[in-house]
Design goal:
199 residues; alpha+beta; five-stranded antiparallel beta sheet; 28% helix
Length: 199
């Protein structure tokens, strides 16, 4: 009898959806990105089928999430809110979260446009009614910039690019480090400013 009662409660919890977490695949790291979606001719998605990352990533804003931040993010992505999202016809994503395995291969990703309150996840399965105000607040807390206009992200991207061009290479290094869009690279091995998680 106790077994039947336990199975009944498990079925109720599963039907409720409260144990459903996105992404379903295992992962080791979660990275938050801010990017200029106009900088890659392949499209505006943060990740592409070959496992590479969008070329418009603004590297200086990249954030590796702590365990507590990952827990909070997954709760936001897996819970329906009662607030309705907007209906603006744009989809200009500038923020994203990418889930990586231990070898820095992409297992899941979601990009978000806070201008039109829309998002695209790969694979599917995130909440259909994410509380985007809470997600935007989360982005602010972890240090991802929230700017007023798409052109501001383009300006921020160009500003970072011009700084990297002006800086001379360190002694003994005659080639540039790999860019973050390379396959299976730890984005935090590329720039000493991003080696530690931001709190």
């Amino acid at each position: 009898m106790k077994t039947l009662i336990a199975l009944f409660f498990i079925a109720i919890v599963q039907a409720d959806g409260s144990t459903k977490q996105w992404p379903p695949a295992p992962f080791e790291y979660v990275v938050g990105y801010c990017y200029d979606f106009t900088q890659d001719p392949r499209g505006s998605a943060i990740t592409f089928p070959d496992g590479s990352i969008h070329k418009g990533v603004i590297k200086g804003t990249t954030v590796r999430l702590s365990d507590a931040q990952v827990t909070k993010l997954r709760a936001l992505l897996s819970t329906d809110s009662k607030t309705e999202n907007g209906n603006v016809d744009c989809y200009d994503p500038h923020h994203a979260f990418v889930f990586y395995d231990a070898d820095w291969k992409v297992t899941a990703s979601i990009d978000i446009c806070f201008f039109c309150d829309d998002y695209v996840a790969r694979p599917e399965g995130v909440s259909g009614l994410i509380d985007l105000q809470a997600l935007e607040a989360f982005c602010r807390v972890i240090g991802l910039p929230i700017l007023k206009d798409s052109s501001n992200y383009t300006a921020l991207y160009r500003q970072e690019q011009s700084k990297s061009i002006q800086q001379p290479l360190p002694k003994g290094r005659d080639t540039e480090p790999p860019v973050s869009s390379d396959l299976h690279d730890d984005p935090f091995a590329l720039d000493p400013a991003t080696t530690a998680p931001k709190k």
